[in-house]
Write a structure and sequence with these properties.
It is a single chain. By secondary structure, the protein is mainly alpha-helical. The protein has one domain. About 65% of the residues lie in helices and about 0% in strands. The chain has 6 helices and 2 strands; from the N terminus they run αααβααβα. Strands 1-2 form a two-stranded parallel ribbon. The longest helix has about 35 residues. The protein is globular and about 55 Å long. The chain starts with a helix and ends with a helix. The model has no long low-confidence stretch (mean pLDDT about 95).
């Protein structure tokens, strides 16, 4: 199952780069409501956000343009958080339909660990491009090549850790506790700058 989720992340990243447009909607690659579509859509959101994070760092953009991009990044970040929290709940139902009260509690939930795996796939994708850039210096290529190798080692370790956590959750050795981020700054009811208590 873990390899399948990884393949969905990679497919979404590849498919996005065929279009390479921020506003391209996530395609319905799998059945609506399926876990496969949920993982694919999560990776699509991450990929769009990755490119907007690049764009917002331009030095030739107008303040209005950059602010609009920042607003989109905030919205995507909330979308990503909501998606991971929903996946966390669905994984809990899949792996522990009956909670394991005696299981050890870990500091990171499985869905958030898989979120890190997804972001790492984006880093690997772009580091491969940078390490092979024909218009870049040899020093740049070598530097990115070293970073790519380090990221590949991180990928191997994270895959092993996710697989171990998955097995521990399925066996009940670890208690599944979905993790909520509670991003207060995106909520006009909890951000003082938005409801008027600051400034």
């Amino acid at each position: 199952m873990l390899e399948r989720i990884l393949s969905l992340f990679e497919a979404a990243i590849e498919d996005y780069h065929v279009r390479d447009q921020w506003d391209a909607p996530c395609p319905p690659a799998f059945a609506a409501g399926s876990m496969e579509q949920a993982w694919y859509a999560k990776a699509w959101t991450d990929t769009v956000q990755w490119h907007l994070e690049d764009e917002v760092r331009r030095v030739d953009g107008s303040p209005e343009h950059l602010l609009a991009i920042k607003r989109r990044i905030d919205a995507l970040n909330q979308e990503r958080t909501d998606a991971v929290e929903l996946l966390d709940q669905r994984l809990a139902e899949l792996l522990q339909p009956v909670p394991a009260p005696d299981g050890v509690l870990r500091t990171e939930s499985l869905a958030w660990a898989l979120d890190r795996l997804c972001i790492l796939q984006l880093k690997l994708y772009h580091l491969r491009i940078e390490a092979a850039r024909a218009d870049a210096s040899r020093e740049h290529q070598d530097s990115c090549g070293l970073r790519l190798k380090a990221a590949e080692v991180q990928h191997e370790g994270l895959m092993l850790a996710c697989a171990a956590l998955w097995a521990d959750l399925a066996s009940g050795a670890v208690r599944y506790s979905p993790y909520r981020q509670f991003k207060l700054y995106n909520d006009p009811e909890t951000n003082p700058a938005l409801y008027g208590a600051q400034g």
